[in-house]
């Protein structure tokens, strides 16, 4: 495994809240989301009745920021460019559902619960806010 991939995995495995940006009416729209991962593929849980589902149906291109949690400007973070698709695998929904989702999704069996699978096209890794990006492409 490359050193860069190890650094990327360290960020995505240790930071579970990030921003997800979609495109709505040709403008970016961002929101905080809980982020899960399977290696470098990202997932986020949502309710099928949300605007973000409408956004990705119109334009599947997304951007995710994950990492720096404002403890200092010297924390690593990643930017992820990718495409998103709805994922309804019962196995994955059970794997990623947790009590933190209860306010939006009462259980893993909720019929409105779905996952958004973010397939990255590129990651940019920043060691700290003033560093040059290291790019990992697929």
Number of domains: 1
Would you tell me the structural class of the helices and strands? alpha+beta
3D shape: globular
Strand segment tally: 8
Residue share in helix? 10-25%
Corresponding CATH superfamily:
Electron Transport, Fmn-binding Protein, Chain A
Give average pLDDT, whole number: 93
Pfam family, one: PNPOx_N
Protein name: General stress protein
Organism: Bacillus weihaiensis
Map the helices and strands.
Blueprint: H1 3-14, E1 17-24, E2 27-34, E3 36-38, E4 41-47, H2 51-58, E5 61-66, E6 77-87, H3 90-96, E7 113-126, E8 134-137
Antiparallel strand pairs: 1-2, 1-5, 3-4, 4-7, 5-6, 6-7, 7-8
Q: Could you please describe the fold and organization of this structure?
A:
Residues 4-125 form the Pyridoxamine 5'-phosphate oxidase N-terminal domain. Pfam families: PNPOx_N (PF01243). This is General stress protein. β3 and β4 form a beta hairpin. Strands 1, 2, 3, 4, 5, 6, 7 and 8 form an 8-stranded antiparallel sheet that branches. This protein has one domain (3-137): Pnp Oxidase, Chain A (Roll), CATH 2.30.110. It has helices at 3-14, 51-58, 90-96; strands spanning 17-24, 27-34, 36-38, 41-47, 61-66, 77-87, 113-126, 134-137. It is α+β, with helices and mostly antiparallel strands. The chain has 3 helices and 8 strands, in the order αββββαββαββ.
Write a compact overview of the structure shown.
Helices cover about 20% and strands about 45% of the residues. The chain is of the alpha+beta class and about 140 residues long.
């Amino acid at each position: 495994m490359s050193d860069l991939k190890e650094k990327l995995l360290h960020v995505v495995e240790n930071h579970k809240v990030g921003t997800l940006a979609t495109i709505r009416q040709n403008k970016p729209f961002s929101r905080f989301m809980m982020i899960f991962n399977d290696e470098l593929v990202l997932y986020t849980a949502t309710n099928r009745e949300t605007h973000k589902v409408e956004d990705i149906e119109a334009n599947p291109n997304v951007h995710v920021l994950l990492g720096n949690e404002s403890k200092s400007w010297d924390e690593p973070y990643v930017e992820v460019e990718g495409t998103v698709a709805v994922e309804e695998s019962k196995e994955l929904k059970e794997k990623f559902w947790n009590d933190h989702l209860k306010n939006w999704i009462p259980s893993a069996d909720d019929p409105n619960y779905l996952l958004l699978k973010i397939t990255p096209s590129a990651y940019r890794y920043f060691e700290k806010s003033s560093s040059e990006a290291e790019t990992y492409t697929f």
